[in-house]
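Entry under discussion copied across for reference:
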Amino acid sequence: MKLTIYRLLSFLLAPIAVLFSISALLLIGTALSNPAMLFPLFLIICIAIYSFASLHFLIKGIDGSKYLGKSSKDWLKVNAYACIIFILIIISEFIVFIMHPEMLQQIIAQAKQSNSGLNLNEKEFHDFASKILYLLLAYALVLLTHVLMSFQYIRQYSYLFQNKSK
């Protein structure tokens, strides 16, 4: 049953990883001209790599019973740790915005002052931002569940990460 949940979550994360991959390619130029964007870009890339590596682990390793090698385990674990950092950031931002809604109002006011071309009034923009926050929280919780299950399956199927000769 748990493997079915893991499989479902893996295939749920895959299309989002494709979107993250595309957005990472589009943001590389922006991040190089604005160093503050490098860390978020790094996290986006790590999440995409983790999603693809875990799907590879599921399909080739668990389902296909093929040896993956030590590097696959390293890619999976390192990017899972980066995903945990992303998850912690998203959850902490959600908590801050829920506890201090005036901060979200300040961000909306700054966006309106910058005249970003959005023709939304403040209530619509606030509703949109709130929906995005809840969507990110849901994604972070799904990702957290998947990462924790991945660590469990990495331990359970540790023999898949060894050389064939052993």
Summary: The chain has five helices and no strands. The longest helix spans residues 122-156. Residues 2-161 form one domain.
